[in-house]
TrEMBL record, chain A:
Belongs to the UreF family. InterPro entries: UreF (IPR002639), UreF_sf (IPR038277). One of its GO terms (cellular component) is cytoplasm. The gene is ureF. UreD, UreF and UreG form a complex that acts as a GTP-hydrolysis-dependent molecular chaperone, activating the urease apoprotein by helping to assemble the nickel containing metallocenter of UreC. The UreE protein probably delivers the nickel. It is found in: Cytoplasm. This is Urease accessory protein UreF. GO terms for molecular function: nickel cation binding. It comes from Streptomyces viridochromogenes. It comes from the Bacteria. Required for maturation of urease via the functional incorporation of the urease nickel metallocenter. It holds the Pfam family UreF.
From TrEMBL, chain B:
One of its GO terms (cellular component) is cytoplasm. It holds the Pfam family UreD. This is Urease accessory protein UreD. GO terms for molecular function: nickel cation binding. It is found in: Cytoplasm. The keyword Cytoplasm applies. It comes from Streptomyces viridochromogenes.
Length: 220, 247
């Protein structure tokens, strides 16, 4: 694997549109469930061990070379919220555009052709990691990090939270991100039927409410 | 002493129950039919499962059969002498044109208990299903036990819904935080699968502040709810049930 390729893919400046999404943090801030760094940490920890693990395993599966159709169907079954399914496909489409320009290869072309509306973002991320010469753990690490990095950045903007404190939250979660990525990659090696399905009721409930707000800062 | 028990139900299109076999704490009774449904009530699961127990219910709804399964009481996951977690497996299959209403009582995770519950459902393409699950974290005023529940539903061989919930002291961190439960002590799901949703899916809509109805990627609607307690949760899910799948 190339450590530098991993940094390129995981970089928040990689033009894949993720910055427009708060990962449910905007709704949690509005509901008063995140008011400070401690609330952010507990939100991020819960997201990491639920949707983070599930998405990381989907990405690891794609990086491992599992059939993307099976992975995409597994992602649909693990995403009961249509607002989140739409967001995942939109992000998948944006990431695909960036990945094909960055690491052009027939496998990405085939995936793009098979999913004109966009595949779920973790599936595309895993395929992009594969195209970049990265492995399942790398893809899982990318997803684990973005699962908590997205809400942390969003909360800095939404609450005016001290960015040093937000970054300290990410650093404290680093050992758990490593464990989630390891678990995700190990599951992905067992095939699509062994993928985890950890889910978070409040994220599913609030995603639909958030999608109906007339004015919002983030897309999800 | 931990126990192993498997109860079995098979329902036929003529309203008969060729197989109705309780086992250990899982006693089954044929009770008064409700509308077109043959009805089976699970009685006596009150004192189980204890740590180390391995319980299972297998229900087969054959082509064209209509079955309602309910329960006489809530299921309490209790601590046992064993340090092993308890396991409770529910395995359901519904054949072509078959209908199953699976409406058990709440699952209460008692302080100090550890239970892994796994529900797997295989549906034929024309099968219909109404399935309710309610997880209550602790009896009144006590902390939760450890509860891991997985619900996997496949329809015509394809995944329709796959969800795992993990709460309590043995669960990964953050389960009580703002992304997962936000301090709520009860959560539940109501799944309605009906081929008619392929033509006319439900609209995603909130039910109050802490519940939502969503159309799945297949012909199904899922209600996801969190609530402060079992009573409020049941009220939410009952209203959704009357709306989405009246008898």
């Amino acid at each position: 694997m190339s450590r530098s390729a991993l940094l390129v893919l995981a970089d928040g400046r990689f033009p894949a549109g993720g910055h427009a999404h708060s990962g449910g943090a905007e709704a949690a801030v509005r509901a008063g469930r995140i008011t400070d760094a401690a609330g952010l940490e507990s939100f991020c920890r819960g997201r990491l061990h639920t949707t983070g693990l599930t998405s990381a395993a989907l990405a690891a599966g794609a990086a491992h070379g599992l059939d993307p159709h099976g992975l995409d169907a597994a992602a649909d079954a693990r995403t009961p919220s249509p607002a989140l399914r739409d967001a995942a496909r939109r992000l998948g489409r944006q990431l695909m555009r960036a990945a094909r320009a960055t690491w052009p290869c027939p496998e990405l072309d085939a995936l793009a052709a098979a999913f004109p509306r966009g595949a779920h973002q973790p599936v595309v991320l895993g395929a992009a990691a594969r195209a970049a010469g990265l492995g399942p753990e790398d893809a899982a690490h990318c997803v684990a990090y973005e699962t908590v990095g997205g809400p942390a950045t969003a909360v800095v903007r939404l609450l005016g939270l001290d960015p040093y404190q937000a970054t300290a939250v990410l650093a404290r979660l680093a050992p758990e991100m490593d464990r989630v990525a390891e678990r995700a990659a190990a599951a992905a090696r067992q095939g699509v039927d062994a993928l985890p399905a950890a889910s978070a009721p409040l994220l599913d409930i609030t995603a639909e409410q958030h999608a109906a707000w007339p004015v919002r800062l983030f897309a999800s | 002493m931990s126990l192993r028990a498997t109860a079995r139900i098979t329902a036929d299109a003529d309203g008969g129950l060729p197989l109705l076999v309780g086992d250990g704490p899982l006693a089954l009774r044929r009770t008064r039919a409700q509308g077109p449904y043959t009805r089976v009530t699970v009685v006596g699961a009150m004192s189980a499962p204890l740590g180390g127990d391995r319980l299972a219910i297998e229900a087969e709804v054959r082509d064209g059969a209509r079955l309602l399964v309910d329960a006489a009481a809530a299921t309490l996951a209790l601590p046992g002498r064993s340090t092993e977690p308890a396991a409770y497996d529910v395995r359901i299959s519904v054949g072509e044109e078959g209908v199953l209403r699976w409406l058990p009582e709440q699952l209460v995770s008692v302080h100090g208990s550890e239970l892994r519950m796994r529900t797997t459902v295989e549906l034929a393409a024309t099968a219909r299903l109404v399935l309710r699950e309610e997880q209550i974290l602790g009896r009144h005023g006590e902390p939760s036990g450890t509860l891991v529940t997985r619900l996997t539903v496949r329809r015509a061989g394809r995944p329709l819904l796959d969800q795992e919930l993990a709460f309590g002291p043995g669960a990964p961190g953050g389960w009580d935080g703002g992304a997962v439960l936000g301090g709520h002590r009860a959560t539940g799901q109501l799944l309605v699968v009906d081929p008619a949703f392929a033509v006319k899916p439900v609209d995603a809509r909130p039910i109050g502040e802490h519940a939502v109805v969503t159309p799945l990627a297949g012909p199904a609607a899922l209600v996801t709810a969190v609530a402060p307690d079992a009573l409020v949760l049941r009220r939410l899910l009952d209203a959704a049930l009357a709306d989405l799948a009246p008898c």
